[in-house]
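Internal ticket #5521
Category: modeling
Description: The requester needs a full-assembly model to guide mutagenesis choices. All entity lines are attached below as received. Residue total reported by intake: 907.
Assigned to: D.W.
Attached entities:
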Amino acid sequence: MAIEILMPALSPTMETGTLATWNVAVGDAVRSGDVIAEIETDKATMEVEAVDDGVLAVILVEAGSENVAVGTPIARLAEDGEAVDDVASAPAAAAPSPPVAEAKVESSALAAPAPVVPTPAAAPEAVPAPASAAAAAPGAGSDAPRLFASPLARRIAGDNNIDLAGLTGSGPHGRILRRDVEAAMSAPAPAAAPAMAAGVTAAMTAASAPAAPGASSLEPNSQMRKIIAQRLQESKANAPHFYLTVDCEIDTLLAARKVMNEQSPDDVKISVNDLVIRAAAMALVKVPKANASWEGDNTRLFHHADIAMAVAVDGGLVTPVIWAAEQKGLAEIAATSRDLATRARNGTLAPEEFAGGSFTISNLGMFGIREFAAVINPPQGAILAVGAGEERPVVRNGQLAVATVMTVTLSADHRVVDGAVGAEWLQAFKGYIEAPVTMLL
Amino acid sequence: MAGETNFDLVVIGGGPGGYVAAIRAAQLKIKVALVEREHLGGICLNWGCIPTKALLRAAELRHSIDEMKDFGITVSGEVSIDLKAVVKRSRNVAGRLSTGVAHLLKKNKVTVFDDRAVLGKAVSGRREVKLAGGGVLSAKHVILATGARARALPGIEADGSSILTYREAMVPETMPKSLVIIGSGAIGSEFASFYLDMGVEVTLIEAMDRILPVEDAEISDFVKKAFIKRGMKIITGARLAGIDKGKTGVTARFEGGIAPVSADRAILAVGITGNTEELGLEGTKVTVDRGHIVTDQWGATGEPGVYAIGDVTGPPWLAHKASHEGIICVEKLAGEPDVHAIGEGAVPGCTYCRPQVASVGMTEAAAKDAGHDIRVGRFPMLANGKAIALGDDQGLIKTIFDKKTGELLGAHMVGPEVTELIQGYAVARTLEATEAELMQTIFPHPTLSEAMHESVLDAYGRAIHF
């Protein structure tokens, strides 16, 4: 499948930028990590690195274009085995089209019998849900964990557009009951994750504004911005953050990744970020105390490493979740993360896909950020900020050597994660990253 | 444990609230003692639920003889009732279960005191419990589970021979020829049904405008017609003015223009009142309101460390409510997670008259009063194959749904074995099932429970067999 390269956000506030130059031409082979273009904003010029391997099939935004909105597709890569011409002529932002059986819906009350797809016995059968509850019911085969909610709660939530995934159940074993949905309905503001902003007003850029000293203008804040502001402010105000930083040498990891991607039988390419997700999931299993959330009288201990990944989108960011990442192999993580990121940028994520999670990873490595500290995504207990992998001098046995080093910083909520627990977690994470074979177990 | 006086918890009263609370506490490793003044198992087991069921079973068997010829069975010879044996069996049933409770308490290492207990003073965070037989216990927590007794009416003394309460009505030495029963709640209706089947002329009196006044009006009406068909006299809207005792019997007088009713004996079944006296509540912050101890949803009273559960806390006066309150009270004070207060309308009610009555949740009138836009389903036992085969096809199952959400607001049943069926709807309500899940559930054929399914279908215009 073709890979779209999107206009990156170089800073949290960037909404548009100028695509200054292309460093590669159509037909060039591109490897993950290659600098393919340079982007200018009023503040800086930054390099754009490829995150996938492939052949540049088409350039959609020419060099020198100004006011290119963040998230706009700027080029498309053909993956191995794909015809460059096909990719170049594909419609923009083509959604992966599932193989649809040729079942026509007749214009009668009886639907035409659809071809029956044999279901493996182990797979849960999809239960025909009442129409209004369908939206809230977890679909069979979805990656989301089963959501325990009463039928009545599902019905009322469906009728009132309440996202059950954002609710805490007060019933036995945390089951969501009617009273929980009704409480959410009467709550002043939704506690759910940011909703996708429908249309962010086109930003005013410095270039088009008169260059008067001290000039400014007011932009209405989108709903997404308001929710981001509210949640992150709440996080900083309520969760006592502390920060732990560690350097990870990733030469072994990069070599392993190269082998994996060469040996990969299908078209799944594993990125460094996928390995980071896997390592974080394994570390959460090893140090379960770090997989927790503060709830006043109780501490919620998550049973799975439900890893949210911060994805910059037009006008803000969303954090789609890879549920039970510890149970997923690298290929599955790679496929899931790519799918979630693509759909996050397209704005086609379902609300339950970006609400919840037990731990977040924010990776700004592609922007050349060496290290940073992230704000915890409440009500989670910790977030991992991942910097760029870069060659740095290191000292080994008294000798100066060169290694590819990635610096990561864990921000933890001290109410649930103590310093020693955070350190233990980072040690586990570093162990998996530096000896990647161990994370395959 | 002999001589032990220090406990984490002392439960006063060994009925279905108290003994269940004590066993649950023992399961949670709480050091617990139970003080019971009379019989383990309380009224329920000794003088209520259980012995009356034994009596009603005898009446039912007696009644079935009259139906034998419909089934092609001839019973020849005289049918007679040995009342002493009927009552003796009822007492034996109660005795067996009371022994069972003693065994359960022993097995769970609950220390039992056969004594009366009075709440003593609070001493440094602990509470003293004084025993009438001497001795003082000390506990961190005390649960009052003292139950209730028949409510008396001013000016009317239940003498136990011509004016009876449930207690004497349960152990008759002779059968009266006629009986007037004041009050048509569960207790009054069950005695009315029992004595009617035993061949007694029964007049049932109710002050409200219908019998079984807490039940859905349609169900009340159904039972009324069934009782009248069997030969019972029913007078509703009759407020008792007094009962005169004569040489041969009693005469009940009423307010207004209602004619007095004479009978050999009268049974008073006008509700019950909590056993709150001689408990040492004076001077504590325990509040007693109209004969009942006031608590929060977890059983806590106004006095720290003192809790109350069951009948002493007020209606509905039901053993299963008392047991459940005992369990959640203990779990709450033990700090267990996932403890949930009894929800509104969550306690099912059963009356074991013939025909049986069972219900859970709101009546149709209550649902409307609460502002629900409702759908009502009805299904008669007349159209149920199993009921027809049993020769017991008089009954109705009524279900009430919220039109908007599909919530099962209430279920009301009258007819054969409905007391055994109501739990299905109770489970559905606890799980917050909607009509969709009830419709999707497969009810086995041929059973009476199919009528439950059909009633739900009927609420949505989809009943198959009617």
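Resolution: model delivered.
Comment from assignee: Chain A touches chain B through 15 residues (CB under 8 Å).
Ticket closed.
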